[in-house]
Amino acid sequence: MSKSPKVQLKNEELNDVPECVQDILSAIYFVRLQELKPELQFPITIADDGRIREIQIKVLKAEPVDVLGRKNAALKLEAKLVFGGLFKENGTFYVWVSDDAYKVPLKFEAKIKLGRVSG
Q: Span 85-114, mean pLDDT?
């Protein structure tokens, strides 16, 4: 069974784009530049596949993460679309970043309809 290739958005004009739109990669860097502490919430506007979306980032809590057999101080972050979950069926996406000046991503977890993905 053949599939049609994904449509590429080249030379297409987008109107009504907010000023501070991020792509997925720059959104990660933007989050790392914030002064993160538990209970902090802030929105990020991202562009993905030609769609503009607002994602709410929430710092849930400080939670140590085991990386290569070593405990690391970390902050657990949650990302959600403003209207519903980041994934279909109200799934959630979590990322743990080091609780230091570098805020290095240490772990991620996505809960989706069919189960859980982590790395």
A: 82
d(CA 67, CA 21): 32
Tokens 């506007």, residue?
45
Give the position of tokens 């279909």.
88
Q: What is the pTM of this model?
A: 0.78
* Contact indicator for 96, 77 with CB cutoff of 8 Å: yes
Cβ proximity of 56 and 41 under 8 Å: yes
The Cα–Cα gap between 91 and 115 comes to 10
- Give the C-alpha separation, 96 to 103, whole Å: 9
Paired tokens of 96: 């743990």
Tell me how crowded residue 14 is: count the other CB atoms within 10 A of its CB.
11
